[in-house]
Structures are given as structure tokens and as C-alpha cells.
Design a protein that fits this description.
477 residues, mainly beta, Ubiquitin-like (UB roll), Porin, 2 domains, 16-stranded antiparallel β-sheet, 9% helix
């Protein structure tokens, strides 16, 4: 199969940057109507949320004078910012002009969400549900509850509690405080987890993860804790600095597997330093149709042994409204690892989380570097509309937005792995997807509703010519 050169990816990146970065334009002449003063800002419906959390998202303050020609765009982006706090199901702005357009009163009406969500968790340790049905072995089930408290104290703080019991156990908590200073520019978060596993991925073979299972003991045990600072100097820019302590305990059986760990110590301890810069101009973050997004992140491990995991990764995404109900989106993800040799239990290529080419959901492509380009062309079959459920009394649930989008897509992916062709835990045993350009394409239907719910059903093909139907619950790009 023809290989895609590194120079080729540079050309793709430069082309994508030219699309995302705003072009310079001559300054517009001052609008004849002059300036409008923000006379009053009135908040309605924020029964729990503190006013400062809403006012922080506005591109203006009470008493500011703004150009009348910029007012419509400023109101729209401010409304999007308030909605993107994910504290409200609905946000509406109503304006009242006084003395012509010299002064303006702004009423902001919100419908708050339900803020306590217990989410049941159930996981089958067998490779699929049908394999588990053959044995009905309930001892191999992992079950529990993920409990989220949002908008704690009305300050957009979040508390998460994780409790998974059974075959693979997980206990943890996380607490996020978006602002700790009066200017609302500095926030922090902290948390810890304990994971106890009877089943561990030990290598990749035939483009599939291979697992080691031990029902009588715990071959992998992990304790981690993190502390994080977030700096938000402007409405759209975020700097995140996180320090994480990781402690792994592995049984001797895992350490005897080549490449799983880089040393023979049962205890693997290291501190991870993580930094990310994010610039987010999407209209609706959980399912954007217009705007752009950029981030770059750096991760470096400070080992107590020889465990290393250092990489740089970036995401660039652009969303266009082409015409009326027609939209296009493109996203590029690049990752560069700074070590040729990494332990298998830390290395991540494509096929994990949301980082995969559509049509390759059932495959894992491991390697040190990767590039992933996603493209989506969509049509709004049912543009966003609101329905009322009269049998429900609570406004948190009886007002439901829904939208339906038909889309076609094409994704390109390339994962580079050193030592291709050698018999090792990444490139041996038929891992044919490494160091080769992959293409996935197809069509799908996206259903969008409140509480950030996205349900995508997609029909996709890959270069194997193998079709598949896949279900996802996040935006494609």
C-alpha cells in the first residue's frame, strides 16, 4: 500500500491552518448610528446559579458603550457563551432600546437544568454480549453508579463520584471549581482514583487488543491523584496545567510480556506534567455548526524508574454554514511522541476514546505518531425546534429541543510506528494498519436534543471493503 509522506502531512496542516486562521480585513467605518450604552442587564430564571457565573460569559458589562453595528454579533456570541456553560437547557436574550438606539436594556432568561445525575454503569468483561450469554457468568460483570453533582453552590462547580464494583473495580472522585479569584480568571480542580483490574490489555495482535484475565487475583492495580489549575484570561482562551501522580502495581505475569513495561519492577511510579492551551469559538460546543476550535497539549512524565510518556498533540476544527440548512466541518488531530520506545500500558495510537477513523471502530492502530483528518457534510432534515411535553410539570424537562441531521463523511488516518515488520507487541502478529494510509467513508443520521444528548447512527466503509453500522453518542468532530 502506498505510504503517505511526512511532507504530505505538512501540506495538509498548512492548508487547514489557512482555513481556520481568520483573514485580515480593512477596518469597517464607524456605523452612522454611533454607540449604544448597555443601560441594564436583567437576569431571569437563575434560581440556583449565581449572577456572576452568567455575567462572566458576556462580551460586555453594564454601563459599557458598544458600536451599534457590532451589537447583533456581540449579543449572539454572548448568548452562545452562556449556553456553553452547560448549566441551562435554554437561554434567550430580549432587548429593549431607549432613546432610539442610544441605550439598551438586556433581559437574559434561562431555564436551568437538573443538576444531579446518577448514571448506572454496566460493563461485560467478555468480548461482546453474545459471548457472555453463552456462559451467563455474572461474576464477570462490572456494575456501579457514576454520580455527578453539577452547579454546586450555584457557582458552576462540579463534583463527580465513581463507584464500580464486580469484575473490574473503580473508586474515585473529582471536584472542579471554575473560579477562585474575584476577576474570575483562575480555577482549579483535583481528584483521585483507585482501579483494581482482573483484566488487562497486554498487546495488539491482528489490529485488535489482546487481554490477560485472572478471575482469582488482580494483575493490575492503579492509584492516581491530580491537581489542576485553569487560567481563562479571555472569553475564548484557556490555559490548563495539571500534575498527576500515578502508581501502578503489576503482577509478575504481566511483566514477563515483552514490551508491556520497560522494566521488571512490580511498582511503576511517575508524575505527569500536562499543559494545554485551548481557543474555542464554536457556537454550540457539544454539537457545533459554526465557528472554530484549536488546542495544543504537551505531556511529560517524570519517572521514578524508566517509564516515559512524552508527547505533543494538537486539534484543529472548523465549522461552516454553507447555505441555509447545509453545513460542512473538518477536523485535524496530530500527535507526536518524543520517545521511540514506550511501555504498552501507556502508549495510545488510534482506536481509543473518540480518536478513530470512522469505519475502523473495531480496530486498534498502535504507534508513536498519528494524524487523523475528519470531514463531514451535513443537511438539517429537521432544523432545531422546540416541543412541549404537557404531561411533565417541571420546566427542566417539559421543554425539549430536537434536531435531525443527515450527513456524509470521509476520514483519513495514518499511524506511524517505529520498527515496522519486527515481531514485537505493536507491529507483530498481523498489525497491518500501521504505517499505511487508512480511509473511512459513509453516511449517517444525527439526533440532537437537550442535556447535550447526541445519538449518531452511521453506516461506514473502510479500505478493507468491510461495511459496518455504528452507534455513537458524541459529535463526530
Amino acid at each position: 500500500m502506498q505510504r503517505f509522506s511526512f511532507d504530505g502531512w505538512i501540506v495538509v496542516l498548512l492548508f487547514f491552518l489557512s482555513l481556520i486562521l481568520p483573514a485580515s480585513h480593512p477596518a469597517k467605518a464607524q456605523d452612522a448610528s454611533g454607540l449604544t450604552i448597555i443601560n441594564r442587564i436583567i437576569l431571569e430564571g437563575n434560581h440556583r446559579t449565581k449572577p456572576g457565573i452568567i455575567l462572566r460569559e458576556l462580551g460586555f458589562r453594564q454601563g459599557d458603550a458598544v458600536r451599534t453595528s457590532d451589537l447583533d454579533l456581540l449579543l449572539k456570541t454572548s448568548r452562545d457563551n452562556v449556553f456553553n456553560t452547560r448549566l441551562f437547557n435554554f437561554v434567550s436574550f430580549d432587548t429593549c432600546f431607549l432613546d432610539g438606539h442610544a441605550r439598551m436594556d438586556l433581559s437574559i432568561h434561562v431555564i436551568e437544568r437538573w443538576y444531579i445525575w446518577p448514571v448506572p454503569f454496566l460493563e461485560i468483561s467478555d468480548r461482546n454480549f453474545n459471548a457472555w450469554l453463552a456462559t451467563h457468568d455474572f461474576s464477570r460483570l462490572t456494575y456501579g453508579v457514576d454520580l455527578t453533582f453539577s452547579n454546586v453552590r450555584g457557582r458552576n462547580e462540579t463534583l463527580k463520584l465513581l463507584t464500580h464494583f464486580g469484575f473490574n473495580q473503580l473508586y474515585g472522585f473529582g471536584y472542579k471549581i471554575p473560579y477562585i479569584n474575584r476577576r474570575q480568571t483562575l480555577g482549579l480542580a483535583f481528584g483521585a482514583e483507585l482501579a483494581l483490574n482482573h483484566e488487562v490489555a497486554i498487546q495488539t495482535s491482528g489490529n485488535q487488543p489482546v487481554y490477560y484475565k485472572d478471575q482469582s487475583s488482580l494483575p493490575k492495580q492503579q492509584v492516581s491523584g491530580y491537581f489542576e489549575f485553569v487560567l481563562r484570561p479571555s472569553l475564548y482562551s484557556f490555559h490548563t496545567l495539571r500534575l498527576t501522580y500515578n502508581y501502578y502495581y503489576f503482577q509478575d505475569t504481566l511483566l514477563r510480556i515483552p514490551g508491556f513495561a520497560l522494566n521488571a519492577s512490580n511498582s511503576q511510579k511517575f508524575v505527569s506534567f500536562f499543559y494545554r492551551f485551548k481557543n474555542d469559538h464554536r457556537d454550540v460546543q457539544y454539537y457545533p455548526l459554526k465557528g472554530y476550535y484549536f488546542d495544543v497539549e504537551f505531556n511529560h512524565s517524570i519517572p521514578f524508574s524508566i517509564t516515559h510518556n512524552t508527547y505533543v498533540k494538537t486539534n484543529l476544527r472548523k465549522f461552516w454554514q454553507i447555505y441555509n440548512r447545509w453545513y460542512f466541518a473538518s477536523g485535524l488531530t496530530l500527535k507526536l511522541s518524543l520517545e521511540k520506545e514506550q511501555p504498552y500500558f501507556l502508549q495510545r495510537g488510534l482506536g481509543y476514546g473518540t480518536e478513530f477513523a470512522r469505519g475502523y471502530e473495531n480496530y486498534v492502530i498502535d504507534g508513536q505518531h498519528f494524524a487523523l483528518l475528519k470531514n463531514n457534510f451535513k443537511f438539517a432534515l429537521l432544523p432545531l425546534r422546540v416541543i412541549r411535553l404537557s404531561f411533565l410539570r417541571s420546566p427542566k424537562f417539559n421543554t425539549v429541543p430536537i434536531a435531525l441531521y443527515l450527513n456524509v463523511f470521509a476520514d483519513l488516518a495514518y499511524v506511524y510506528h517505529y520498527n515496522q515488520g519486527q515481531d514485537n507487541h505493536f507491529s507483530g502478529s498481523g498489525n497491518t494498519l500501521q504505517n499505511a494510509l487508512q480511509l473511512g467513508y459513509g453516511t449517517g443520521l444525527d439526533f440532537i436534543t437537550y442535556y447535550d444528548i447526541v445519538i449518531r447512527c452511521e453506516f461506514a466503509m473502510n479500505l478493507f471493503g468491510k461495511p459496518g453500522i455504528y452507534l455513537h453518542f458524541v459529535a463526530p468532530i
